[in-house]
Amino acid sequence: MFYVQTNPDDKIFFYKDGWQQIKFPPSEWNAYNSESWWFEAYAGRLILFPSSLTHMVPEVKGDDTRISLSFNTFPVGVVGEEMDLTGLKLEA
Predict the structure, then answer these.
(1) Which of 11, 14, 26, 80 gives a 20 to 30 Å CA spacing to 70?
(2) What range does the domain containing 41 cover?
(3) If pLDDT is split at 50, 70 and 90, which confidence band does 90 have?
(4) Tally of domains in the chain
């Protein structure tokens, strides 16, 4: 998601989706154990995330129109290591 124009309080929220049978409450919350997280959205910011990640943006509160560009991308090249039998060649 690339932000072209925003308001001062614009944000994007991300959520872990799905049911967990067993859940242990952490002693301290951080980006790795939280069930939701948000980032400030400001002009010129690029946020890349998997399309499978549940996300939302709140209603615009401000005088400017929020303008953002969403797109899908896919890596090209070699991922992993052939010697470890994890190599995968991705072509365009």
Answers:
(1) 80
(2) 1-92
(3) very high
(4) 1
Distances (CA, A) of 17 to 1, 21, 75, 88: 20, 13, 25, 28
Are residues 43 and 3 in contact, defined by beta-carbon separation less than 8 angstroms?
yes
List 39's β-bridge partners, or say none.
Answer: 12
- Output the pTM of the full model: 0.73
Q: Give the residue with greater pLDDT, 27 vs 18.
A: 27
Q: Determine how many CB atoms are found less than 10 A away from the CB of residue 25.
A: 6
DSSP, res 23: -
